[in-house]
Amino acid sequence: MVKPGTVLAVVGAAVGGLATMNRALAKVGEPAGIGGEERRYVWRGWKLAYRVAGESGAPPLLLVHGVYAGASSYEFQKNFHELAENFRVYVLDLLGCGLSERPGRRYEPEDVAAQVEDFTREEIGVPAHLVASSLSAALVLPAAVRNPRLFKRLILVCPTGLGSLDRPSGLLGDSVYALFRTPVIGDALYNAIVSRRGLRYYLGNIAHHDAGSITDGLVEDYYRTSHQPRSKYLLAAFVSGKLNLDLRDLWTRVPHKTLIAWGQEAGTPPVSQAHRFVRRNPRAELKVFRDAALLPHDERAQTFNEEAKRFLLGERKT
Predict the structure, then answer these.
(1) Is the pLDDT of residue 15 over 90?
(2) pLDDT class for 28, splitting at 50, 70, 90?
(3) Are the C-beta atoms of 157 and 132 separated by less than 8 Å?
(4) Structural domain includes residue 1
(5) What is the CA radius of gyration of the chain?
(6) How would you list the strands of the sheet with 88-92, edge to edge?
(7) What are phi and psi of 169, to 5 degrees?
(8) Beta strands in 105-214 (DSSP E)
(9) What's the DSSP call for residue 250?
(10) Burial of residue 115 (number of CB atoms within 10 Å: 0-12, 13-18, 19+)
(11) Is residue 11 included in any domain, yes or no?
C-alpha cells in the first residue's frame, strides 16, 4: 500500500519540476518587429505598442492582427511597408500581444472593439480604413456599428462569427479557462501549445497552406513573442471560447463597404463560410486567394496588397 506521504511527495516533485520548466521556458528575447516608427498609446491605463509608416497626408489605414498563439503585428510583415506606399499605415499590437503590455486580466470580446475604436478616435484622429484578421475581424465589428464614422472601408480576412467561434463557451470553457489561469499547471499547458513544435504545427497546418514555407526563423519569431511574461492570459480566453462572438445580428448592421478576403485552403473557418458574409450584407464582396489558408495576406502578399489598394482606393467595382 502506497503511503499518503509518498503520493504527496511524488505530486510535489512533479509540480516542482513543472514550475522549474516553466521558469526556464520564460527566458527568451524580445518579440520580432516589422520596422516603421515605433510608438506607444495608453489605453485605459495600459500601454499598447504600434508602428507607423507612410506619408502623413496619405489616407490612414489601421491593421489589426488576429488572436492566436504568438499573435502580434508581425502578422503584417509583408503588407506594412508595401501598403505604406499609398497609405499612412498604423499597425497595432493588441493588449496581451507583441510589444504591448500583457496584464493578467480577464479578456473579453469587447476589448478588441474598444481598443480599435479608442485608438482610431484618439491616436489616428480621422476616419480610417481598417484591415482585421480572423477572430479580430469579428471582434472589431461592434465598433464599426456603434461608431461608423470612424471608419471608411473594411477588409476582413477570414472572419469568424458566422459558423465558427460564435457560441458561448459553456461549462467546459469555464473549466478550461480556470485551468489555464492556475500558476503551474496552467503555465505548463500554455507552454505545450506555444512550444516550437506546437507553433510549427499551427503555422504550417492551420494558418498557412504551404507547410514548406514555415522556416525555423519564422517559428523562432513566433516563439519569442509567445514566451513574453503573462502571455498566457489572452490565449486562455481564446482557447476556452471566452472571446467567441456571434455576428448574426451584428453583421447585417455594418454600413461600410467591405471586402471579405479568404484563403481557398482555409480549414477553420472554411471558405464555405465566406459566402455567408456576402449573402447577409449587400455591401460586402468576396475575394478568394488561391494557394492560401487563414493568412492570405502573408502567403499571397503581393496579390493581397494589390487587391487591398484597389479596394480601399475605390478602384474595385462596388
Answers:
(1) no
(2) low
(3) yes
(4) no
(5) 20
(6) 37-43, 46-53, 88-92, 60-64, 128-133, 151-157, 258-263, 284-289
(7) -70, -30
(8) 128-133, 151-157
(9) T
(10) buried
(11) no
Tell the burial category of 162 from Cβ atoms under 10 Å away from its Cβ (0-12, 13-18, 19+): buried
232: domain range?
Answer: 38-312
Matching residue, cell 472554411 = 270
Identify the sign of the CA torsion 213, 138, 262, 305. negative
**Count of domains for the chain:** 1
Integer Cα distance of 54 and 88 in angstroms: 4
All three cell numbers of 295: 493568412
Q: For the whole prediction, is pTM greater than 0.85?
A: yes
Q: How far, in Å, CA of 191 to CA of 229, rounded?
A: 12
Check whether the bond before 282 is cis (ω within 30° of 0). no
Residue 21 resides in a domain: no
Burial class (CB in 10 A: 0-12, 13-18, 19+), 7: exposed
Kindly report the length of the chain.
318
CATH number for the domain that contains residue 248: 3.40.50.1820
C-alpha cell at 304: 493581397
Instruction: Give CA–CA dist 261/271, Å, rounded.
Output: 10
Q: Residue 286: count other Cβ atoms within 10 Å of its Cβ.
A: 15
pLDDT of residue 1: 53
Closest CA to 41 of 115, 148, 103: 115
Query: Rounded CA gap, 289 and 264, in Å?
Result: 6
Nearest partner of 293 among 285, 282, 284, 304, judged by Cα: 304
User: Grid coordinates standing for 112?
Assistant: 478588441
Give residues with Cβ within 8 angstroms of 8, minimum separation 6.
none
88 forms beta bridges with 60
- 33 within domain boundaries: no
